[in-house]
Each structure stands twice: as structure tokens, then as C-alpha cells.
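RECORD TYPE: inverse folding
INPUT: C-alpha cells
STRUCTURE:
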């Protein structure tokens, strides 16, 4: 089943992933913007993750790939419900590598010897190499990006086979490096059609997903559900390495400068691909127009697993089982798209999706390929678009029109309702404190913290945190 109206819960990495694992918007779970290499905190510890609930229900739980919800001390994935972790603590552009891959502008390789690298751009990380973890150990620093996808495929295969052999149900959360920059310089880069590194990266991602799906089909096809989606739209400032927003052009914003993609609340920032697969349960070759969100993964998966939602908190996602099984075509009536960096306060709800209409109380364009940034603009009354007629968000409804006047009071009502609900909820606050000592480093005596697989090290832990995790180590 292919979803054409599916949305990330925010249009940047950490908030989107926090919402996936909690079923709650950033205003509730506390994660409203990205964590840094030196972040002390992460997803608040009083938030319950999908993995924690399923772990308590007897599931083997694994996380492979990018985490980006806190790596220091008890924020590490092994202490957030995952028996097994193999991956990187944050985005793979947040550390140098010996094979830096394709970026715009290019970033230098990790320094060697005593001389630090000089970065041609402030966005390049040159002082600390990107680490690769297996559970609590850094097993490689810097990561070999060109081999990372195949390692992920191998570890995913081993995890699934181990869970199957043990007779336990499993949850495997795979946070791919694709399609984020830097794009790897792989053997697939020699595209016979000359389409360049982005197309090569897509093919590599397809191959990785295919290997995981083939493993599932061989071992547990009849009772394994696969849900594939993304965490935000294209990062436009990366130009041809960013991908495309397709028909969701955000034309109103483009005319005023900046990008309408990642970091914005335009459709190109949060409308993402989504595919669900479960042979014999989910109808095949079906396109669903139901309005759904990454927020729905948490309650849906728990419902399918027969597990209960955590008590004492409110959720923004819904159980989409009826849609998945073809018994309903209806998802959300309302979605809220939090500010994600382009304009306004992080996490604030100033963009409202109400059925086919979308209202903006604030707009702004993120940095575009040409370097332009769209100005922050507040709108009262709001801009309202009819997405059914204008998916490109080109021309807002006339404020005096009957359609606008009919929609506006309903938009105000649902926005007031959610803000009142958040105020009455048990909300969390993330610790965004930074300290250089929180930087993952396997060998502080080597430039860029360089080490190899022969000298893995444990991640620093506070005294009150367990120093061991589950027994599964492929």
C-alpha cells in the first residue's frame, strides 16, 4: 500500500524521530530541534519509546542506523528500549570521514597526523570523526561511508534471523543514512544513464531495503509488517544532491525567496513517501489517499502487537490499522505541522492541516540552492490553501471568499483545542545543554579521535547507568 498524503511529524531530523518513537509532537515530548555532537541530553527520559513498550511485551528490539535522539549516558539507544544498536549517533554529515562522499559544498577528509583540516564551509565538521557504534562500543571512527549500507544490511539480516531462531517477535527500527548528504561514493555511482550520485544513492537504498525485505520473506513473511517512510523533505541548499519536492513546489514561498522544503512547514518540508507491506493482510498495489503521519506508527504498531498505550499522557497519532487493512479510507481530519527552523519558535504550532485545507499563521523559506532565505512573515488572518486544487501551494484562497470564511473558524477552533490539550498534558522538556566532554571519541589522543575496529571503546556512562545491555551481538 502506497500512501500519497503521508507526513513527517516535523521537517528536521531529531523532532521527527522523537515523534515516531513516542507518537507525540515536540511540544509534548520536548524535542523541538536537532541535537548536536556535544549535546548532553536527548529525548527526555520520562518519555516512553515504542521500543520500551514492545520490549516489555516480550519483543526483541533492535535499532540499526541513525539515532539522533541523544548519545551521551542514558540517552543512548541501549537505554531507550533497544536490546541491540548498530549505527551512528547523529546525522552522518556531523563528523569527518576518510571517504567524505558527495556534499555541497564538498567537505574535506578527516585530518591525519598533527595538522587539523581546514573547512571550506562552516557546515563541515573537521575536528571529530563520525563514530560507528555497536551497542555501547565505538567500533569504528571515522566511519567508512562507502561500506556502511552493506554493514547495515548484514546486521539487520543477522538480527532478524537471531530473533526468529529464538522464537521471539521482533521490532527492528532502521534509520537509513539515505538520502541525506554526504552521498556515498559507491560502486553504484557509475550510472549507465548518467544520472549522478543521487540516483546511485537511491539504487543503493533500494538494494539495502531489498535485502531486508528478502530476509523477512524467507523467515517470517506471514507475520511481519514493514513500514517504510522518511523523516523530512529535501534539504534544498544541497542543490542536485538534495532530491526533489515533486509537485509540492511551495510556489507562494518560492516567489518570495528561499526553499519550501526541509525546515519549513510547506508540503515539500513534511510530505514524505510511505509504503506499507504485509502479505496476506495489507491489500497489494493499492494507493491510499488517507491523511496519515509518522505520529501514527507508535499507536498502530502497539495495536497490532496487542500492547497498551502508556498511561498518563496524550498522543497525537492514531491507530491506522483499518486503513492498512483496506477497511477504511479515512485517516486524520486534522494535522499540525510544527515550526522546524525556517520561521517562528521551534516546535510551535502555527500551520494547520484541516482535511483538504491548510492554514499558515507564519511562513518562511529555508536556505535554497542559490543561498537565498525567505523572510519570516506572520499572517493574521492566515493564508489558507486548498491542497486538493493547489498542491503546489501557489495561490491562497481570497479572504473574502465563501470557502475561506467557512474554513477559518474551524481552523481557529482546532488550533485552540490542541493548544488547550497540550497545556493539560504531561509534557517533557529536553535538555539541549552542550558540553565538549559529551562528544563521542574512541581515542582522544589521536587527531579527530581516530581509531579502528581493533581498538573499540565504551561510550562514557554516568554512574547510575547500566554498563551492559542485552546478550544479542551479531
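DESIGNED SEQUENCE:
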Amino acid at each position: 500500500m502506497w500512501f500519497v498524503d503521508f507526513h513527517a511529524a516535523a521537517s528536521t531530523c531529531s523532532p521527527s524521530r522523537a515523534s515516531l518513537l513516542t507518537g507525540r509532537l515536540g511540544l509534548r515530548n520536548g524535542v523541538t530541534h536537532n541535537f548536536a555532537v556535544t549535546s548532553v541530553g536527548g529525548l527526555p527520559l520520562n518519555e516512553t519509546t515504542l521500543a520500551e513498550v514492545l520490549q516489555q511485551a516480550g519483543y526483541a528490539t533492535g535499532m540499526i542506523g541513525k539515532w539522533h535522539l541523544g548519545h551521551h549516558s542514558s540517552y543512548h539507544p541501549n537505554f531507550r528500549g533497544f536490546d541491540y544498536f548498530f549505527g551512528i549517533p547523529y546525522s552522518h554529515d556531523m563528523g569527518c570521514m576518510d571517504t567524505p562522499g558527495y556534499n555541497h559544498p564538498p567537505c574535506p577528509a578527516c585530518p591525519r597526523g598533527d595538522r587539523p583540516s581546514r573547512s571550506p564551509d562552516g557546515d563541515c565538521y573537521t575536528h571529530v570523526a563520525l563514530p560507528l557504534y555497536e551497542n555501547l562500543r565505538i567500533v569504528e571512527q571515522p566511519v567508512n561511508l562507502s561500506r556502511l549500507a552493506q554493514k547495515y544490511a548484514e546486521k539487520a539480516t543477522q538480527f532478524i534471523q537471531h530473533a526468529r531462531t529464538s522464537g521471539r517477535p521482533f521490532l527492528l527500527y532502521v534509520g537509513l543514512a539515505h538520502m541525506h548528504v554526504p552521498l556515498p561514493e559507491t560502486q553504484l555511482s557509475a550510472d549507465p544513464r548518467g544520472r549522478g550520485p543521487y540516483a546511485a544513492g537511491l539504487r543503493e537504498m533500494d538494494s539495502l531495503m531489498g535485502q531486508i525485505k528478502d530476509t523477512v520473506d524467507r523467515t517470517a513473511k506471514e507475520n511481519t509488517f514493514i513500514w517504510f517512510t522518511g523523516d523530512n523533505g529535501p534539504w534544498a541548499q544541497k542543490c542536485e544532491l538534495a532530491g526533489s519536492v515533486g509537485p509540492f513546489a511551495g510556489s507562494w514561498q518560492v516567489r518570495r525567496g528561499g526553499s519550501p522544503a526541509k525546515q519549513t512547514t510547506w508540503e515539500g518540508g513534511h510530505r514524505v513517501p510511505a509504503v506499507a507491506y504485509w502479505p496476506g493482510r495489507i491489500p497489494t498495489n493499492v494507493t491510499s489517499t488517507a491523511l496519515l503521519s509518522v505520529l501514527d506508527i507508535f499507536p498502530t504498531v502497539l495495536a497490532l502487537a496487542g500492547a497498551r498505550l502508556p498511561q498518563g499522557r496524550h498522543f497525537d497519532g492514531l491507530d491506522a490499522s483499518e486503513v492498512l487493512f483496506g477497511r477504511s479510507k479515512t485517516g486524520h481530519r486534522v494535522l499540525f505541522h510544527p515550526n522546524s527552523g525556517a520561521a517562528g519558535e521551534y516546535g510551535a504550532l502555527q500551520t494547520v492541516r484541516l482535511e483538504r485545507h491548510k492554514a499558515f499563521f507564519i511562513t518562511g523559506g529555508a536556505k535554497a540552492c542559490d543561498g537565498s532565505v525567505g523572510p519570516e512573515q506572520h499572517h493574521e488572518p492566515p493564508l489558507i490553501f486548498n491542497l486538493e486544487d493547489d498542491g503546489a501551494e501557489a495561490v491562497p484562497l481570497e479572504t473574502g471568499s465563501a470557502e475561506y470564511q467557512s474554513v477559518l473558524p474551524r481552523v481557529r477552533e482546532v488550533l485552540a483545542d490542541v493548544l488547550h490539550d497540550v497545556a493539560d498534558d504531561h509534557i517533557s522538556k529536553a535538555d539541549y545543554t552542550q558540553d565538549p566532554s559529551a562528544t563521542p571519541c574512541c581515542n582522544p589522543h589521536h587527531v579527530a579521535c581516530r581509531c579502528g575496529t581493533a581498538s573499540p571503546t565504551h561510550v562514557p556512562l554516568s554512574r547510575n547507568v547500566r554498563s551492559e545491555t542485552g546478550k544479542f551481538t551479531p
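NOTES: The CA atoms of residues 93 and 182 lie 6 Å apart.
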